[in-house]
Each structure stands twice: as C-alpha cells, then as structure tokens.
Amino acid sequence: RFLGEYLIASINEKGYLEIPIEEVALATESSMEEAEAALKLLQTCEPAGVGARDVQECLLLQLRDADTLEKKLARAIVKRHMDDFLARRMRPLMRKFKVMPDVLEQAFEEIISLNPFP
C-alpha cells in the first residue's frame, strides 16, 4: 500500500511519474520487481497514460488495447518510428508497413487524437 501511495504522490500535474523507478524502490524499501509491478498496476488506471515516464510511453499506454489495423499500426509507429511520425515521413512508413496512404493517414490521426498529458 505504501508503495502505491508513494507512486501516486510522485505523479506530476501532467500525469507523468516524476522520479525514476529505482528511486521509488529505494524510498519505499521495495525491490525493483515490486516497484515495477506497482507501476504497471498504476498504469492500468484511468485516464489511460497516467504513470508514464515519457510521452512515448504515455501514447503506448493509450494504444495498449489496439483492436483495429489503424490502431495497431499507430502503436507500431509510436513504438519504433516516432521520428518518422513527427517529421510526417509517410513514404518510408508506407514501405515499411506495406500499407496504402489512407491507412497510414488514419494511423496518424489515431496518434494525433491521443492525449499526451493524461
């Protein structure tokens, strides 16, 4: 319980975990495994993305239950090709994922619709 409360208290106004998980484990006299497990549990709470350590993790948490082709593609882009997304480099992504421009555009829209500050 103390570990969970400490994690919650360490969430900033943007919804991100402010301190490294190692520091959480030390401060609560917990193991790294316990701290990571508690963080994973916290990250299942609403709003989706809360407890993330950076923007990429926040977006991935919001896409964790991807159930459509576009959402799965959006998750893959956020996970491995964020630079291409930010630069809107569509051609390399279309080639990489073998998708048509409209499908890629829908995946981009999925990403844009996410909240980077839960």
Fraction of residues in helices?
55-70%
Query: How do the SSEs run, as a string of H and E?
Result: HHHHHHHH
Shape: elongated
Mean pLDDT: 96
Largest sheet: none
How would you summarize the topology of this molecule?
Blueprint (H helix, E strand, L loop, with lengths): L1 H8 L11 H7 L4 H11 L12 H8 L6 H12 L1 H5 L3 H8 L3 H12 L6
Brief account:
The chain is mainly alpha-helical and 118 residues long. It is built from 8 helices and no strands.
What does this 3D model show about the protein?
The protein has helices spanning 2-9, 21-27, 32-42, 55-62, 69-80, 82-86, 90-97, 101-112. The protein has 118 residues and is mostly helical. The longest helix has 12 residues, at 69-80. It is elongated and about 50 Å long.
What descriptive keywords fit this protein?
single chain; 118 residues; mainly alpha; 8 helices; elongated
